[in-house]
Amino acid sequence: MKSNISKNSLAIISSLLLFFIFQCSIGLAVEKPERLKIGLVLSGGGARGAAHIGVIKVLEELNVPIDYIAGTSMGSIVGGLYASGMSTDEIQKVLTSIDWSEAFKDTIPREDRSFRRKKDDELYLIKSKPGLSDSGQVKLPIGLLEGQEIGLIFKRLTLPVAGITNFDNLTIPYRAVASDIVTGKTVVIGSGDLALAMRASMSIPPIFSPVEIDNKLLVDGGVSNNLPIDVVRNMGADIVIAVDISTPLLTRKEITSSIDITNQLTGLLTRNNTEAQIKTLTNDDLLIIPDMGKITTASFDLASDAVPIGAAAAMVYKDTLTKYSLADSDQASATIGQVKKLNPAPVISFIEVNNQSQISDKVLLARLAIEVGKPLDTNQLQKDIDKIFGLELFENVGYEIMEKDGETGLRLNAKERSWGPNYLQVGLAISDNLDGGNSFNLGFAYTRTGINRLAGEWRTAFQIGESPGIFTELYQPLDYGSRYFIHPRLLYAEKNINLYDNGGNVASQYLLSEYGLDIAVGREISTWGELRFGISRLAGDVELSGGQDSITESSYDKGEWYLKFSLDSLNNRYFPLEGSLGSIKYLSSHEE
């Protein structure tokens, strides 16, 4: 009896076990397969890149998840901002509201320049200054623009994720694509400073200077890989959605000038590598090519028009895109444009300076009004950086948010000009009274900046023409904020003086030759004013150079002291729209 019960029990247990295994096998068989990963590729194309926003908006509407993003140039900017957590509406507002004509300049507002630099405007020397090495070799910048302003814009836009240095930890894993100008090879940037990565990816040579990252000089990614399909594949994408907004090549009839030839050569450079990437697409991938019409790479004023063009191009593939849609809209939104942002205004606990120049760190810190222990004021920081950049000593000035010992800090980065600190300038002034009288002056200047820790400078200039002359001067700040200064000057100058008869005709011409010394001490008042006290010791001769002698030729010797207050808050020295300009001087001469 016991034997039978034992056998029945074993049979029942065996049956239950087989049933459990069977059920488990059915469950495994019907388990939902893992979703295919989708990679979004955004090409370069300047202002045409706003079309990328329209494409992404359609992907959001159709609940198509984006698992990886790789972009080149403008594609890296749109992709980087989206990966950082900005919505498509926010990105569109940013791209269409930026004054790109100002963003693509390195000049800061004149009112933020030091008073010393404003005084340079009184000279007619060309502002662009080639450098001169100590051995006499002429040096030039490696780009027409250093990208100072655009770099600060990117920093401000990416500040909420400034603490994320691994781009896999952004809302969407992201890669910026640049090119090594030394080797020509593609460089994929997946870590570091997001703003700097975007800046490197859009450094169009020779317009923008290369960006140095990991000892590599990086330029626009379009040089080597304008449509980085292979990058998202390496990131893990099973399906690729590539958006190509690059400019098509010109036809034979469209090539009618040397400018067209130059544009075609640039197009060939990017088009060849783009076509090579397109050939790697499979039947499961999707290539979207918006018809940009008249919108060119430089048509930033039409950026808002490019957005709906991109959306329309994506909607053509609605049926295909729907296959990749997630049924659960909440699940889709979790992969599209959502991020737990860092504090957009982090509290700064400490400040560090990465000063790659010969001047003291205190010169830079004296121009920072950022308060430790308070939330970062990005507007104030922008003004402070403009003042430092306005010293015209640095190639670029930027910042980064850093973490150390559990505290958040600000690191100021200042890189000395690679073509300095010696500079040459030239200028030409021509005048005509429309009545047969004209004159010209041709001037040259040599300036050496940063001659000591307080950022002193020495300048020598000479001029030939109507008013020949030469001077050499030392401008030496006496404190780190450059508020107080001493300014000794040696000079020699000639000037033609005309005397007229009652009929308005030149009756006689005299040549005034003057030489001597002027030494002043003073104080700059912010960036808008200056007060100085000076002593001059000058001597000169007056000689007849033409016409009848109506005065006695003579020599003179004079000594004087003066007190002078100057004001200059003009936004432009020659065509001002706002501001004030003027000076008042008290002068006293003494025989002794």
Kindly describe this structure.
This protein is an alpha+beta fold and 592 residues long. 26% of the residues lie in helices and 32% in strands. The chain contains 15 helices and 22 strands. The protein has helices at 2-30, 51-61, 74-83, 88-97, 100-103, 115-119, 148-157, 194-201, 229-235, 258-278, 303-315, 318-322, 329-333, 361-365, 378-389, and strands at 38-42, 68-72, 131-132, 138-139, 174-180, 186-189, 211-213, 216-220, 239-243, 286-288, 350-356, 394-404, 407-416, 422-432, 438-448, 457-465, 469-477, 484-500, 506-525, 529-547, 554-568, 581-589. The strands form four sheets. Strands 14-15-16-17-18-19-20-21-22 form a nine-stranded antiparallel beta sheet. Strands 1, 2, 5, 6, 7, 8, 9 and 10 form an eight-stranded mixed beta sheet that branches. A three-stranded mixed beta sheet has the order 11-13-12. Strand 3 and strand 4 (138-139) form a beta hairpin. Helix 2 (51-61) runs antiparallel to helix 4 (88-97), helix 2 (51-61) crosses helix 11 and helix 3 packs antiparallel against helix 8. The longest helix has 29 residues, at 2-30. It is elongated, with a radius of gyration of 34 Å. The protein starts with a helix and ends with a strand. The model is unreliable at 24-30 and 329-342 (pLDDT under 50).
Spatial arrangement of strands, main beta sheet: 14-15-16-17-18-19-20-21-22
Largest sheet: 9 strands, antiparallel
Radius of gyration: 34 Å
The chain-level mean pLDDT equals 86
Low-pLDDT stretches are 24-30, 329-342
* Total E-strand runs: 22
Tell me the distance between the termini.
Answer: 142 Å
Number of helices: 15
